[in-house]
Amino acid sequence: MLVPLLATVLFSVSTRWDRTIWPEGITLRWWQAVTARSAFQDTLLNSLAVAAATVAVSVALVTPTAYWAHLRAPKAKPWIEFLAIVPFGLPGVVLALGLIRFYSGVPLPLINTPAILVAAYVVLTLPFMYRPLVNALEAVDARTLTEAAQSLGAGGWQTLVRAILPNILPGVVNGSLLVFSTVFAEFTLANLLVGTRFKTFPIYLVEFTRFDARQASALAVISFVIAWLASVLIIWLAGRGDRPRETLAAR
Amino acid sequence: MNSRRHRLRRAAWLVLAPFFLFGLAFEILPVLTLVRSSFTAEGGWSLANFGRAFTPVMVASFRNSLQLSASTALLGVVGGTAVAYAIVTARSRFVRDALTALADVTANFGGAPLAFAFIITLGSTGVVTLLLKAVGVSLYPSFRIYSVSGLTIAYVYFQLPLMILLIVPALLGLRREWREAATNLGATRAQYWRRVAIPILAPSLLGSFLLLFANAFGAYATAWTLTGPDVNLVTVQIAALVRGEVQLDPALADALALVSLGVMAMCVAGYRWLATRPWMAAP
Q1: In chain A, positions 170-229, which contact chain B (CB-CB < 8 Å)?
Q2: Which of the four, A120, B71, B142, B143, has the lowest number of CB atoms within 10 Å?
Q3: Domain-embedded: residue B127
Q4: Are residues B17 and B70 in the same domain?
Q5: Most B CBs within 10 Å, among A94, A128, A203, to test the B interface
Q6: How confident is the model over A180-209, as pLDDT tens digits?
Q7: How many angstroms away from the CA of A55 is the closest CA of chain B?
Q8: What is the mean pLDDT of residues A54-72?
């Protein structure tokens, strides 16, 4: 399982590695060349911005909903779960097609903008955000916490932000990291919804694979490191052992 | 009293409104648009688009996608269960933690960077290709990473870790006493697996297979990076129609999208149904 990863890392620092069994030499030239490009920084920043925006929207949208449904409106739960499971059965190409069809028919300037990409990502990653949140809510006895906060005079939002949020923070962070690493590596929706108008890092990577394998390999390593960092953080947060997780990252 | 409860209930739904509006706007309505458009032809309800959609090329794309999904899901289920079993029964804590961490991390690798890693590893001048050539095994031209068999390897790479994560909880649910009881009653190892363990695991195995199947069926980035438009898959066809590379025919793309959505939806619904059965080992 490690061979493709190690090969990519080694390839990105070899002078030449297409005739001999081992690299003919070691160099950082490709790394310097690729990171010096302004497009490199632009696309990296674009991807970081889109990932951060998706996490922000998702946390703001899903946290109050999951909390409220858990506590006050259990009848809404099956509907929320439905919306959170559908993305598993929704291929990226189909979601992109549906969004383009629908929003080219309504008078909203969303088509081809980063905004519609963020919205699509929030949908795509709903399962990753919702599940850890529900697990966390079930683990902390949200009802007792809420009653305690309210008996001390806290209002609705105050209860959520000051009493519940700190207690379910591991779930929020866990979900956010999954969302972040999924969005950062996502290619399909980015390619079809915005394409070259707003280049993300994976689009840049795929472009490079077509004309400079060495520099592309450096980009792939960066991608792997970011995904790896997110996983390490999740594992570290979860402590060890039992954490049923759902990972259907961007394929 | 009654009106107060009424107000509370209304407040409850008000808090939920943004979420549902969002889901409606970016998840439900786009899908419904596709449903309506694919069933509409010449101003009325019709199945004509589906008839047109099934040209020989499109039928071939469905066959390729179904085959690729089934074979990689099967390989993923078998291989993933074997590794997960090794994780669950490992005596050494280090082996267990190392394998779990590897599954966790590789489950997050996918799409374009992974496909490119495979080009470097198994491409025509790839690292493993060169190594094998040095020991007298030449992969090319009989094998090509840029083909369906190449895609199979790349897909299995992301199916395996997912399977491990899905099946470990079910394997942990297999109680040691069941095995001991079977052994005490004279069952062999094979009999224990065939008569006890596999029937207990069956719903989890089937459910995981369905999820892996859907996972492969909807995949696009890996296939596109690895093979470009060379390999005829459903997702590649739909994406080409979206980008307007092929002649623009919205209703046709919508019909294709709807059929693939149907395949995926059945898989995910089956997975959900199996996962929420009372007889399933609690995760």
Answers
A1: 181-182, 185-188, 191-192, 195, 202, 205-206, 209, 213, 216-217, 219-220, 223-224, 227-228
A2: B142
A3: yes
A4: no
A5: A94
A6: 988 998 999 999 999 888 999 999 999 888
A7: 15
A8: 92
Residues B30 and B70 in one domain: no
Q: What are phi and psi of A70, to 5 degrees?
A: -60, -40
Residue A251 has pLDDT above 70, yes or no: no
Percent of chain B that is helix, strand, coil (3-state, to 5): 80, 0, 20
Which residues of chain B neighbour A184 with C-beta distances below 8 Å?
Answer: none
The answer on pLDDT for A72 being more than 90 is no
pLDDT at B55: 87
pLDDT of residue B281: 47
Closest A-chain CA to B228: A210
Q: Which pLDDT score is estimated for A247?
A: 44
Min CA distance, A200 vs chain B (Å)? Answer: 12
What one-character DSSP code corresponds to residue A111? T
Phi, psi of B282 (to 5 degrees): -65, 130
Mark yes or no for CB contact B109/A224 under 8 Å: yes
Residue (of A45, A58, A5, A81) closest to A180 by Cα position: A58
Give the range of the structural domain holding residue B28, as residue numbers without chain letter. Answer: 1-38
- ipTM, two decimals, is 0.85
Flag whether B44 is in a domain. no
Give chain B's largest Cα–Cα span.
85
For chain A, state the CA radius of gyration: 21
Q: What pLDDT was estimated at residue A249?
A: 41
A97 interfacial to chain B (CB closer than 8 Å)? yes
Q: Which of A85-94, A114-123, B190-199 has the highest mean pLDDT?
A: A114-123
Residues of chain B with pLDDT under 50: 280-283
User: What are the structural domain ranges in chain A?
Assistant: 38-237
Find the mean pLDDT for residues A62-78. 89
The model's pLDDT over B88-131, given as tens digits with 9 standing for 90+, comes to 888 888 888 788 877 877 777 778 888 888 888 888 778 888 88
For residue B10, what is the nearest residue in chain A, using CA coordinates?
A73
Instruction: Tally A–B CB contacts below 8 A.
Output: 267
Selected from 1.10.3210.10, 3.40.605.10, 3.40.190.290, 1.10.3720.10, the CATH number assigned to the domain covering A38-237 reads 1.10.3720.10
| Same domain membership, residue B22 and residue B90 | no
Q: Name which of A7, A21, A69 is nearest B117 (Cβ-Cβ).
A: A7
- The alpha carbon dihedral of B51, B53, B56, B60 has a sign of negative
Alpha-carbon distance of B175 to B172, in angstroms, equals: 7
Q: Answer yes or no: do B98 and B155 share one domain.
A: yes
- CB distance A185 to B204 below 8 Å: no
CA distance A71 to A74: 7
Domain count of the fold of chain B: 2
